[in-house]
Amino acid sequence: MATLPASLKQIALFLERLPGIGEKTANRLAMYLLRMPEVELQAFGEAVRELKKRTKLCKQCLNLTEDELCSICMDNRKDISTITVVETVLDLLSFETGNIYNGLYHVLHGKIDPLNSVGPDEIYINHLLTRVKGLTSSLKEIILATNPDMEGEATAMYIKKQLERLKEEDGGLKFKITRLAYGLPMGANLEYADYGTLGKAIEGRRDY
């Protein structure tokens, strides 16, 4: 049975460990890398080698950056009175790419998931609470934008309780706590909506 050369197979096995990459796709990508011009392949290899060395967490919001603060936290045009709490950097990028939000962020790098031994101390909730304590006068709203699954809801509820406790302990904290509205997408047909989606749409209804 024909097999790839050992060096090429090793690359394919590494690629196969990436999310969403199966064996056939990994083999095709490995072959593509082999066909790349030597200069481009070396540049790619150097970028991969430097990835962990140069990339770190923003001291303020925990976004990925190569500096002390990320480009979002350094942007003077951002509304510093609002912080949106997200699970991952990819969630943050969704907000930024859509150009639908102009505030700051806080990246948890996970969510509370007891089945996988992930508790509040394993993600950056305490960092958020410490950050909030130092924003007595400027902070007006914290938006909890964790995903609408069981773990995301549990994470949002835990954070809400911790933030409410902070407000009780410090009378100077006047911010409100909000949760993203989840429900029917634009162009949706009620006939095909599931009960959970309809329920969220009812809960998140507004004046019209």
Automatic annotation (TrEMBL):
One Gene Ontology term of the biological-process aspect is: DNA repair
Q: Which Pfam families does the annotation name?
A: RecR_C, RecR_HhH, RecR_ZnF, Toprim_4
**Protein source organism:** Candidatus Roizmanbacteria bacterium CG_4_10_14_0_8_um_filter_39_9
As for what it does, the entry says: May play a role in DNA repair. It seems to be involved in an RecBC-independent recombinational process of DNA repair. It may act with RecF and RecO.
Q: Which Gene3D superfamilies match?
A: 3.30.60.80, 3.40.1360.10, 6.10.250.240, RecR Domain 1
- Would you identify the family this protein belongs to, as annotated? Belongs to the RecR family.
GO MF terms, alphabetically ordered? DNA binding; zinc ion binding
Which InterPro entries does this chain map to?
DNA_Rcmb_RecR (IPR000093), Rcmb_RecR (IPR023627), Rcmb_RecR_Znf (IPR015967), TOPRIM_dom (IPR006171), TOPRIM_RecR (IPR034137)
Q: List, alphabetically, the SUPFAM superfamilies matched.
A: Recombination protein RecR
List UniProt keywords, sorted A-Z.
DNA damage, DNA recombination, DNA repair, Metal-binding, Zinc, Zinc-finger
User: Is the Repeat keyword given for this protein?
Assistant: no
Protein name according to UniProt? Recombination protein RecR
